[in-house]
């Protein structure tokens, strides 16, 4: 299943307009959650996506740390 481009563009625009990072994060998280629910993802699948995102961020941070050292 693919996320509809029009919905994606809407939340991108909203996030870019917000200068407050915590607020932008909430907007993006809520929009992503709604998109995933709308295309039929279950709660467990949404949790799996969330875990993957956290894992990607963690991997990137680890690579940056190794590069600095």
Structure description:
It is built from three helices and no strands. Helix content is 83%, strand content 0%. Helix 1 (5-17) runs antiparallel to helix 2 (21-38). It has 69 residues and is mainly alpha-helical. The model has no long low-confidence stretch (mean pLDDT 84).
Task: Give me a quick take on this structure.
The protein has 69 residues and is mainly α.
Q: Quick one: how many beta strands?
A: 0
- Reading the helices and strands in chain order gives HHH
Q: Average the pLDDT over all residues and give the rounded result.
A: 84
Number of distinct helices:
3
Give a short account of the largest sheet: none
Rounded to the nearest angstrom, the distance between the terminal CA atoms is 41 Å
- Classification by helices and strands: mainly alpha
Percent range of helical residues: over 70%
Strand content: under 5%
Shape: flat
Radius of gyration: 14 Å
Flag low-confidence runs: none
Fold blueprint:
Layout: H1 5-17, H2 21-38, H3 43-68
Helix pairs in contact: 1-2
Key structural traits:
69 residues; single chain; mainly alpha; 3 helices; 83% helix
